[in-house]
Amino acid sequence: MRLAAAIYLLIILTLNTVSFAQFSKTSTLPVTLPGKGLSQFDFLYAGEAKEQNMYIVKNGAIIWEYKGPKDKGEISDAVLMSNGNILFAHQFGVTLISQEKKVLWNYDAPKGSEIHTAQPIGKELVVFIQGGDTARVMVVNVKKGETVHSFIIPTKKPPSVHGQFRHARLTSRRTLLVAHMDMGKVCEYDVNGKELFSYNAPGVWSVESLKNGNMLICCRSQVVEVNQKGETVWDVQLRDIGFNINSPQIATRRPNGNTIINNWFNSWSGTVDINSPPIQAIEVTPDKRVVWALKSWAAPAALGPSTTIQILNEKGISEKVKFGKFK
Q: CA 193, 194, 196, 202 torsion: positive or negative?
């Protein structure tokens, strides 16, 4: 009997050990998140949500916040300019505000159209994409309130306006990179709307031009760096990094070579479990190690869904860009 009991106990311990090992292997989140949370660096934060909320975080705390109207459009893109003003695209328009929250310029999207991305060109010009039955890239002088240039870009037919575009950025080549969500590809256009480059990217959400001339593309399952020949020079498969990143939004490359990836939560289709909230953003090294993960859903820093992070005191989204003759 004692021998049988001993054998039974050994079997139970073995099974428990195997079960624990299997759990550890399949678990998607480490017990302790890497990095220093909100104190990792100072940053501007915004996300697509039912409210147009933006935050500036410094020294681990929110030092500025903007709370826009509820159910009046979602913030898809935001840029903190060198003069302290903030340019943001919020679905039904694009707006420039001061940090005192004074509206300096605003453009309302025409009925049936949406705007989800914008970038400043110097202090007076803004480039953005207006999605719609006829989608356009537009350059506007915010001082004069005038459209100084525009051209039509293609969309999938029949068009679904909300899913046409999300993110676009100017390049050092005076061109514009556009993430065509509906067509599942990235295209580069010159200032006259001529397509110069195309890359198939199913599930694409964002694209940015890197200093080396390559493109950093964020898709549903991966972030990939592609050269101008369309060759992959670096990628990270999000299922392989040990974190549950199931709705990536924007990928940005830091000067140190690391990549920040925002992970969005759809507040229209569910409520965040405050006891087990999703990761909002991660920082990945070139060798694909996660060195920082953000999870800040509760007071005093309830940041909400994550779409974009701009690290302050780093040369990120530049205003010193040109688009053809516009500068």
A: positive
Cis status, amide bond into 248, omega within 30 of 0: no
Rounded Cα–Cα distance for residues 22 and 18 (Å) = 6
Provide the residue type at 143 as one letter. K
pTM above 0.70, yes or no: yes
Helices (H) and strands (E) in the chain, counts: 1, 24
User: Given the structure tokens 């990094």, which residue do they identify?
Assistant: 241
Q: In whole angstroms, give the CA distance from residue 78 to residue 310.
A: 8
Q: Cβ distance 188 to 177 under 8 Å? A: yes
Nearest-CA neighbor of 296 among 33, 79, 29, 30? 33
Give CA–CA dist 132/93, Å, rounded. 13
pLDDT digits (tens, 9 = 90+) for 21-77: 333 333 345 568 999 999 999 999 999 999 899 999 999 999 999 999 888 899 999
The domains located in the chain, with CATH, are: 39-311 (2.120.10.30)
Q: Which of 200, 6, 176, 166 is nearest to 90 (CA)?
A: 166
Model confidence over 253-287: pLDDT tens digits? 999 999 999 999 998 988 999 889 999 999 999 99
Contact call for residues 201 and 215 (beta carbons, < 8 A): no
CA–CA distance, 30 with 242 (Å, rounded to integer): 8
Question: Cis peptide leading into 30, omega within 30 of 0?
Answer: no
Q: What is the 3-state secondary structure (H, E, C) of 170-213?
A: ECCCCCEEEEECCCCEEEEECCCCCEEEEEECCCCCEEEECCCC
Query: Which positions ≥6 away from 87 have C-beta within 8 Å?
Result: 78, 79, 81, 94, 95, 96, 118, 119, 120, 126
